[in-house]
């Protein structure tokens, strides 16, 4: 009898723990919203440099003068000419944030 009661208490505790966990997960996407500079650091810095100055890839400091947001987005998705395609590795939200940020660099 005692053990049964303990079991019920444990179950209730673990359920409530799960409940609060779910709430934490729900709040997360808003907290880690994609932003251009962060995505750049994670995926592009190795070839385009810490200050977008270029290296293995071309300088991107004024890429917005040469290419529109849409062109930049396509370039990132498809890669080519030594640049790998990022269609799969980037989420749409990250791709958009990154392209918009780069297109604004003039
Ligand atoms: C493995 C190295 C490498 C990585 C990683 C890389 N690039 Fe590139 N990127 C290049 C090379 C090389 C070129 C030049 C290709 C060419 O000459 O056509 C290029 C070209 C570009 C261009 C066109 C520039 C222009 O003036 O025409 C853009 C925009 C660009 N990269 C953005 C990015 C972004 C954003 C990322 C991260 C998601 C990224 N690249 C990651 C190597 C890389």
From TrEMBL:
Originating species: Paenibacillus sedimenti
PANTHER family reported in the protein's UniProt record: CYTOCHROME C-553-LIKE (PTHR37823), MENAQUINOL-CYTOCHROME C REDUCTASE CYTOCHROME B_C SUBUNIT (PTHR37823:SF4)
InterPro entries for this protein: Cyt_c-like_dom, Cyt_c-like_dom_sf, Cyt_c_BACSU-c550-type, Cytochrome_c550/c551-like
Alphabetically ordered keywords of this record: Electron transport, Heme, Iron, Metal-binding, Signal, Transport
One term of GO molecular function: electron transfer activity
Domain Cytochrome c: 31-106
Processing and modification events after translation: Binds 1 heme c group covalently per subunit.
Amino acids binding heme c: 44, 47-48, 83
Name of protein: Cytochrome c
Keyword match Transport: yes
SUPFAM superfamilies: Cytochrome c (SSF46626)
Signal peptide span: 1-19
Domain of life: Bacteria
GO cellular component: membrane
